[in-house]
Design brief:
The protein is of the alpha/beta class. It folds into two domains: 134 residues, 3-Layer(aba) Sandwich (PvuII Endonuclease, Chain A), CATH 3.40.210.20; 44 residues, no CATH class. Helices cover 35% and strands 24% of the residues. It contains seven helices and nine strands. The strands form three sheets. A four-stranded mixed sheet has the order 3-5-6-9. Strands 4-8-7 form a three-stranded antiparallel sheet. A two-stranded parallel sheet has the order 1-2. The two termini are 30 Å apart. The relative contact order is 0.17.
Length: 218
């Protein structure tokens, strides 16, 4: 069995997306639950990988699909390209989630006569960990720094953006930002009990921005 790497993961994701887009599946007919479809597609992809590669089983503690590679799978419908992920720290909006994302964006169609469904994977995108921060917050911080903004400017901006952090944490983040400016992120991350990740910008920018790769296009 081969050892799975980032490069082989991306290569296999492209091959899987092409093959899956041409399959029909009876068990998905009439299913509209995005979570159920996501679980189905993730399971099929992992089964695909297990034919050739050793996979480290993810644990509830790690919370991501490929903990040894620090990569998580996200499956989302093209009509509302978003998903959720665990909230760990407000810093994730500024410095990223802490892991990369492999995003499958699908369109589902049902064949009423045949009682089957098909999932056409329209986009398969790999987002490097350092690009998984929030677009507007990182852009705002970088603009403040470019305009010779100081600690007070950063704090005011973060408070204005309702960053889910208390005053002490906001002050700590402001100090960190001055010493280590973030990279521009490309997700839209909404506050909730879990982060709500939105992928429209990632879909638009894939292949045009360093760190966001379109690994198949149909």
């Amino acid at each position: 069995m081969l050892k799975l790497t980032i490069e082989s993961l991306r290569k296999e994701a492209a091959a899987f997306s092409t093959a899956e887009s041409h399959r029909v599946e009876k068990t998905l007919f009439g299913i509209t639950d995005g979570k159920a479809i996501g679980t189905y597609l993730e399971h099929r992809f992992k089964t695909h990988l297990q034919r050739s590669y050793e996979l480290e089983v993810s644990s509830s503690a790690s919370g991501i699909d490929f903990p040894n590679l620090l990569v998580d799978i996200k499956v989302t419908n093209i009509h509302q390209p978003q998903s959720s992920c665990p909230f760990k720290s407000a810093r994730q909006k500024i410095y990223g989630l802490g892991y990369s994302l492999l995003v499958f964006v699908y369109e589902k169609t049902d064949n009423v006569n045949a009682q089957t469904a098909s999932l056409k994977i329209l986009h398969t995108i790999f987002v490097n960990a350092d690009r998984t921060a929030d677009f507007q917050i990182t852009r705002g911080i970088l603009q403040i720094l470019a305009n010779e903004g100081n600690r007070d400017d950063i704090i005011a901006f973060l408070l204005d953006k309702n960053l889910p952090a208390d005053e002490m944490e906001v002050n700590q983040i402001a100090d960190e930002v001055l010493n280590k400016p973030p990279k521009q992120g490309y997700l839209t991350i909404s506050n909730a009990l879990q982060w709500r990740l939105q992928y429209s910008r990632v879909i638009e920018q894939a292949g045009q921005v360093e760190g966001i790769y379109r690994i198949n296009y149909q």
